[in-house]
Amino acid sequence: MKILTIDPAKAHAGEAYGSQGFALTHIAAGQARLSHAVLAPGGRIGRHPATQEQLLLLIDGQGEVCGVDGVFQTITAGQAALWQPGEEHETRTETGLTAMLFEGEIERISEQLN
Questions:
Q1: The dihedral formed by the CA atoms of 46, 9, 51 and 87, expressed in degrees to the nearest 10
Q2: 8 Å CB contact between 103 and 33
Q3: Which one of 30, 39, 83, 88 counts the least CB within 10 Å of its CB?
Q4: End-to-end Cα separation, the chain, in angstroms
Q5: Buried b (16+ CB within 10 A) or exposed e, 6-27
């Protein structure tokens, strides 16, 4: 076993698509990618198309997400947003949030989620 630590000092500052206050740490990659995402208060991940299926799972904080319709919905810790390949989407927060971001083919979503 190996214990891994996410080092905020090594996070990549996400500035593409007009993003602000966005820090991303890639955790693992292969046929899919898992990343740790932090949005500072007032931060946003600018509107862009998903390159693959994308699942944003909030582990702390609160924010708002939108998909192709541009209508923002509130999302809180313990909730996830799922976007399809090519779907334009955006994430923003007034108070800050921490999330895990999974990008890749999703074969199924757990029946424990609604």
A1: -30
A2: yes
A3: 30
A4: 33
A5: eeeeebeebeeeebebbbbbee
pTM: 0.90
- Burial degree of 66 (CB within 10 A; 0-12, 13-18, 19+): middle
Cβ contacts of 50 within 8 Å, gap of 6 or more: 83, 84, 85, 86, 87, 89, 103
**What residues contact residue 15 under an 8 Å CB cut-off, 6+ apart?**
22
In 3D, which of 48, 42, 53 has the Cα closest to residue 66? 48
Which of 77-81, 95-99, 107-111 has the least mean pLDDT?
107-111
How many C-alpha atoms does 57 have within 13 Å on its Cβ side? 11
Q: What is the pLDDT of residues 32-57, one digit of tens each?
A: 999 999 999 999 999 999 999 999 99
